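Quick start: read one record
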Amino acid sequence: MSVEPGHPYVSSALERLRHPDLEMLSPAYFGMVMATGIVSLATIWIGLPVVAWGLFAIALAAYLVLWTLTVLRIARHRDRFFADMIDHLRGPGFFTMVAASSILGSEFIILGGNMVIGFVLWLIAVILWFGLTYTIFTAFTIKENKPALNQGISGAWLLAVVATQSIAVLSSLLAAEIEQPYRLDLNFLALSMWLWGGMLYIWMMSLIFYRYTFFRFSPGDLSPPYWINMGAMAISTLAGSLLIINSEDAPFLHSIVPFMKGFTVFYWATGTWWIPMLVILGIWRHVYKRFPLTYDPLYWGAVFPLGMYAVSTFQMARALGFDFLEMLPTVFSWIALAAWALTFSAYLARLFAAPKPA
């Protein structure tokens, strides 16, 4: 059945594209690019190159649209934009810009073999990382009015870890294709970001786990970004695996391979531990407490870790020769693809929903 241009569903969608609610646009919406990009890479391992390219195109389109909306938001709602940046709950969502840029850059290198665009996106990610890291955490430090721990921290804080590790991943991919002496520089940057990301996770996860266990926890508190608990460890695993693979051409990496192998498995094991815990909490939230399951941009923060776990497990098995893990990337690639399809369908249903009668 064809849909005419004047149909209310189409009119509603076009109206939202023309006049989006810029003032309240979630800074974490770049999570859609993160999730789509990593699921695109995950589908390669299950033999779906056409799907991988299709998801790549969607991720690129979403990235460009979101940057357009972000620029418009800065122009029209500058005060609200910067107020979000220093807000304890919304501020960490800005780190999705960094991770989205890095993951899209990784796609350009892996799928398209385009080092130039990969490098440009790496440069954007690095600039964003420096600007956001020192703006957001400085603001959190010097603010006079701060929320209590149970009101000011969530799994979204770990997006800072994901952003850091995403630069380590893209730097490693670039280093594998570039000539010396820049190969050495990029590998050292990747190693430094990998180590810093791991330390940052330990700091933040200690606070989040304390919030879990010593403060009242309601179904509304268990927002989808808590899946970043696992996703941050998955991308740390991926970065470590790529550094191990690169160690053959970097003497300083080769000298610490046992250390990198140990911490890579440590990150993977920690991320794996979170999966059953998060599933159980999700059942408690939606089945036992009957919390409504409706579309929210934050659900992209739950899709991303599933795809990242698939990709990171594949690369770790490749780097360490863990052939006995070969089924896990396949299983989680399919799970991630199904989760992406469900979330994207919900997004389209929201976008094309018929307007409510006046």
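The CA atoms of residues 241 and 315 lie 6 Å apart.
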